[in-house]
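Collaboration report, partner site 2.

Our partner group contributed sequences for two proteins of shared interest, and the home lab folded both. The records are reproduced in the order in which they were received, starting with the first partner submission.
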Amino acid sequence: MRTWVKHITTWDVQNLVLLRKRRSPSFRSFSSQNYLNGSFSNVQRHMVHILRYAPALLSCCCHRFCTGIQLFDEMPQRALHVRENHFELVVDCIKLCLKKPNILTVTVAHCAAVKIGVLTHLPTSTSLLTAYSKAGDFTSSRDLFDEITNRDVVAWNAIIAASLVNNCYMTAMEFFEKMIKAQTGFDSTTLLLMVSASLHVKNFDQGRAIHCVSIKHGMLVDVSLGNALIDMYAKCSDLSSSEHLFEEMEYTDVVSWNSIMRGSLYNGDPEKLLYYFKRMTLSEEIADHISLSCAISACSSLRELAFGQTIHGHGIKLGYNDSSRVSVANSLISLYSQCKDIESAETVFREIAYKDIVSWNAMLEGFASNEKINEVFDILVEMQTTGSFRPDIVTLTTILPICAQLMLSREGKTIHGFAIRRQMVYDHLPLLNCLIDMYSKCNLVEKAELLFHSTAKRDLVSWNTMISGYSQNKYSEEAQFFFRELLRRGPNCSSSTVFSILSSCNSLNGLNFGKSVHCWQLKSGFLNHILLINSLMHMYINCGDLTASFSILHENSALADIASWNTVIVGCGQGNHYQESLETFRLFRQEPPFAYDSITLVSVLSACANLELLIQGKSLHGLALKSPLGSDTRVQNSLITMYDRCRDINSARAVFKFCSTSNLCSWNCMISALSHNRECREALELFRHLQFKPNEFTMVSVLSACTQIGVLRHGKQVHARVFRSGFQDNSFISSALVDLYSNCGRLDTALQVFRHSVEKSESAWNSMISAYGYHGNSEKAIKLFHEMCDSGTRVTKSTFVSLLSACSHSGLVNQGLLYYDSMLEKYGVQPDTEHHVFVVDMLGRSGRLDDAYEFAKGLPSHASSGVWGTLLSACNYHGELKLGKQIAELLFEMEPQNVGYYISLSNMYVAAGSWKDATDLRQSIQDQGLRKAAGYSLIDVGVG
């Protein structure tokens, strides 16, 4: 026992005297000499004060604490005469330690127990053991247990419980084995404790063994043990055993019902939870706040708003709407939020008298999930001011994804600063990962990388987030480097890793690396899920290897779902492989369970629109009408666009007219279709009756309509609307305004709009270059082209269309040919039909018809009708009948219904005096029923 006196009697008597002077007048009667002489009358009078002020003693004289050990080591050992009142006082002190565990107060109580010699009293020593455990000193608990010689079941249970309290689960199992060997016996409490230990170490077999032992010894009559076993089976993913045990239990209480309901929710079976909740309400057992919270959570998972409202009413009847049961209110907030009834969620939140941090976080999450962004930040401010709650990890990890999604970098940085001040960043990996994701999605990859490298505590989510961030921001090489590093030294990869790295292979340059990832997937077994197969097919499509993608789809046709087919159909469409997209859809229709969705139809309609396949588009329209997808807004919008591209404006009008639930996109599609098909006044009238607040796309379409009809008055009104809406900095709108003012003869205003553009896109540069060309300022157009190159803006095919047009209109043939020759070599732009047309136009305007003819014949692919048509116009202008007749014959074969070619040749016959040939050609036009569209002129007669 001397060793224990040495360990626990660590009070410095001089410090106790110091405490008497500093703390309380009641301590002034305390005599250190009386304490050393064993006068327990003084100890009895002042024990409560010692226990009360022990923590203060540590804080005011900690530097003198250790030196006091020697005073008690030198105390003479003497026989102690224990009086009953002394014993009762020590027991009361130990009970106080159990209620408010503190290592100093427990040590004082232990000291007193040793002093009066009551440690031989088994309940006292057991209580002290438990007090040490609750105070976090498990070592002292074990040492005290070793000193107990007459151990009973309660003592063994106490040390096992102490092991569990201090997370020493394997130690608890070792004590249980020793208990069995000591043949002390055990009770239901022992088994309950061992069930808890088995659950924590995930030892399912041992849990089953304990269940068998409890049945053998008839201990399942203890409801608490049965409840623990129900919970253990459920958390080991054996819900069936939990249910069997629950049904076999002779006695059940509210905890039993709660255990089986929580087990159902834990195993992802909310329907079964509601089944047990209904049974519980029909039984004699009354639901408590845990039962209601579980049932409400199940309704949230199933989006069962009506059932949840019923439970809400049931809870009010049971009196669980007061502040003491805030967990029920918190669950209701989540239910209403997930069912999109955010007003009811806020009502419940406002009615909570005493909110906790979970209440605030639930309301914040509710606003976030319902896209109430302003309210999210408002509730965050209110939380810190009115509620006086500091944001915790849950709060921050709820707000950061919003900042990432909406690219709110300033708000994200503010949250980062708050987390740094509270020292929360590097202690919580989920928060660190959210910050990395936020910076990545806000195009601040450098900051994300700096944050990633600032800590050595990384998990697989950290690596995946960083790889995904690089991929999203087009840093393919960096993403692939990080992937290699992850394979070399990081944790095992997951499916998210595969998705992240495959998205970095999005061009022809990434094909080889994508193939290596494919091989790695085969070796690592990451092709066992259809989502990974779909991702791999999408990678091959992005890299231009359609054959490999189709091959993977064919090999996995048995596993392929609608998402697999959509992956190929959408991918081909995004890569401008429209014919392949339609072919894939044809194959898809031949599969037995042909179950298409809106994504399928939208993608195929887009392919028909780009290929101007009106017949196929109409058949898809009929297919959509046969299914509920015919009323889908996205499908209807795609149909409007398809008919627009196929020049069937009447069908587009019909689709728009019968739209069941039109949105702003529907109106934009219709306005754009009217503008594209030269129904500009109708487009402006439709804009005037717009039922939604216009966006940038609306303004671009309306400005295009104004440009076509050349009505500057309407264009200025739209320009004013642009300023009122705050769209003036949009680069596409700036480009449309430049086109408007230049086409209406206001080059000065067009230049002013261009120069005041905050962000000049390539389309704005192209529009201004084209404007200079149309107004005969080719030198300024060329100068602006070089200015565009110097600014770092990427030149495109449209840029060279505008530049070659300017050279053609100004007669700068040689300079125009030089730019044409340098397109591919210097600027990496592949010439297409439009560029060929302008080269022929340049040569034709300057009279170099033979050169134009040789150029057209020498094109890599057979020249289009547009090229030959331009050359025919040049022949007509210069009166070159022989060449013109030859070209016209060729055009008659290519486009026999184009009356313009016949008219051009007829005019050439007239100019050459060949009246008979002209008359015969005119008669041929009449015989074929061809008719030239009537020309018209516009004049603005409006006011002002």
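Second partner submission, folded after the first:
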Amino acid sequence: MDIGIRADGLSTDEFEQFAVELVKKKFEKEKFHGFKEGRDDGIDGLDDIKNPSIVLQAKRWCDDKNKKTAVRILKEEIDKICITKKKLKYNWTNPFSYVIVTSMGLLPSQLKEIRDYADEKCVGLIPSDDYIIHASVLNELSNESKYSDIFENHGLLIKNIGKILHNEKIKALKYESGDYFSDIDFDYFVETKFLGEAYRILQNERILLVHGPAGIGKSTTCKALGNLFLNNNEDVEIIERKVKNIDEIIDLFNREYRDASIYSGILFVVLDDFLGKNSYDKEDEDLAEVQKLYSVVKNSERLILCLNSRTQILQTAKESEDEFQSFIDSKLKHRNFVLDLSKYSTLEKAYLLRKTFEKKINELEEGKKIELSSNYSTLKGKWESIVNHRSFYPRLINFVVENYDQSEEDFYDYIISNLNRPNKLYDKLFARLKDEEKYLLFVLYFFNELPAKEKWLSNQLNKVVNNSAFNFTSSLNRLNESWVHFVRLGFNDEDKIDFFNPSIVDYLKAKIQEYPMMEENIFKNAIYINLHLNKYINNYRVRDDFFQKLLTSWDSFLDREEYIGERLVSLIKKSDYHDYTVEFSKHIISYDGSWRLSDYDNGWEEVIQAIYFSEDKVLKKDFLQLLNDDIIENILESRRLNSESLDNIAESMNEIISDVWWEYSDEEDFDFSNLEEISFYSNFREKKIALLQDYLDNDSSVEDYTSTYYWDGEEETINQEIRFVKEFFEKNVLEMLKNNYEWTDIKISEFNFTSLELNIEEYIRETFESEAHADYYHDNWKEMRLESKTAKTETINSILDPELLQIES
């Protein structure tokens, strides 16, 4: 059978039942009867026993049987039904049609043979091809939602595998959603006014930027928002990802959520610290990724995006001269997506303080409960100086309360001194750590990608720590939930380790300056290239040192297979090529184009440019001789390949070809002098067209180039606006064909502007309507926000004065 279902795997009775249900649905019959196995006179089902309009013959047929025999048997069934019809065995007087359902695949010639035979025996018995449902027709029907339940119920639906995988994926995401809330106890969560505002903005706009100082509760607010959506709609899955995972997010949404007929749930995505964890470190490529996701959110009601960032980092981004500044101002701030969490009310801070103490005392043993409650009682009358302190941030308050037993002075003085000097408590706790635990924190700090794999952290610590008694698991457990914690970014992901909160990273960044010997020891014994990236990834002045280290220490790195592109560049730049010809060939043949020195660069561009700048003609010759269909496909389908990087690759290859031609033009293999003459050029040309077409079809492209255009709202002028914008894009495409490499044989007529025109019109209309109603939510959110009914009568003292142990009694 040429279908993805195995209908021949059903028993005869099961297949007949399947056929009955299929024919009933296809021919829209309210009733359709099937019969048990036995002599059936060519009848396996019909719609009316007295005067049928349709009679069914179901014939399960194994694919490995002779097809000629199958056609002969179907003819025999036609003979039976014709005899039944002529002899009026059942007193049927009305004409009826004969439907054949078979698991076998039939050729056009066989279909014609069967229909001709039917007409010869009983004219009009099989009115059209629709009445012979064979293997390929079953395949077509299996892809129609109208019949999906029938195929599914009988285990035949080709998409059944996809639906099973979909259900498993959604199940896994639900588990991940549960894990996302595992470190927050909502019994001790304070619902501030910001939560109500944020919830309503997300309901209406589906995107929100939460910002505030470090430790103010941005991540917790995002979790609370996700929990609100989850409580109001069971089909919500909450995931936390990074900017570099946006392609994965979009792919997940398109596969599992885009088609509402498959699943009507909502994907709630949190991009934590989307502008950088401890400093602004994003590039134009990061913005392009965020804009892609923004575009998907804007055009779908079932994708919700919650961004958060430190205010300081947000301000740096807004003051920068790159595209992030205009994106934040035009897309986020203008549409009221930004909330400032630094404006907690005094009563909200009082609730935060109270809930923090309640949570801690609930975790303690009886003796410790009495100790903490006694300390708490000494704070009466001093609440205002605590809750109004300039450093009153939920994270810091939680850290101070968690470590209450570190107090060696008056409890109030302990709290205030730590609010005055937030690092004081860190210093005290850090000083008590063993050397191997300090190493663990510093090694984790130096890993370029956080969270880091637990296995990698363990391997590196065992290499660095010079202590035979060192036990990684014990050290990790002692630091867990105070300095570090376990993280899983996906349900099937392995355990990874991250810092308990970002402020620890800030602390270690300064602290490592006091431990130069530890830093030197870590890098001297580094067995992961990933550890070195922090030094080199944003410092081009020392990139040569990095490539030199890859050349000399390659075999000692356990993660070397993830850095093939960088290894190739190190071989090209730093080695005598003749010493590495075999390895060079091996890597070129298998290389996928990844480039770990940047999340957004295309590795093939870096490798091919390195080959171009090399003075070694043999290297260039060998590279061209290695090129085959597979390598060209690897280049053209590699990650992060865009129009500009393709131009750079094409130009570099053009120069490489030219260099080799001048040197080896007398050899038979090199009868081409430029890229257009090489056999693979058509692949490059088609890819360039495809990339530019994607650019034209992408609705986010329109946003970049229509912001200055104005529509007055009159229908007769919109076509003029569309033509104006379209002309702009035509000029832009022509410029893109003449950038670093000139594609002389690609004409503007080869591009389709239909989707672009539709996107332009949609954007112009949407922008006009958005501007007309831009202030709607701004004027109304105050009336809609959540307010505590008793807030007006509560005071700081009424919230904080009750004894802690009374809560437990």
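Feedback sent to the partner group on the second submission included the following. The chain is about 55% helix and 5% strand. The two ends are 72 Å apart (CA to CA).
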